[in-house]
Protein: Anti-sigma factor antagonist
Amino acid sequence: MNIQTTINRDQSLMRLNGRFDFNSHKTFRETYQQLLDDDSVKEIALDLAQVEYLDSSALGMLLQLKEKADSKRKVIKLKNCSQLARDVLAIANFDKLFEIS
Structure:
């Protein structure tokens, strides 16, 4: 998976492209940790438009991100979800944990 990150004032955007699975763990964690450590960032949005595969380990990574973000009082949003991502997130009831658009 490829991740592009941009920061605009207090909002950051992580654009994920490709397969979001266990093999993405290290890259995903390193990327979001930098954003969590940046005190100027208050919101982290994940753009899932180009995610072509999402498995249970990806759901676990999203939960870890949310837990760490909550402890730092940062907001996590999931945006531009591909239909595949939207279906997987709905089955897992992630719409109750995340703002999904």
User: Anything to note?
Assistant: The chain is about 40% helix and 35% strand. The mean pLDDT is 96. The radius of gyration is 12 Å. Helices lie at 25-37, 56-71, 83-91.
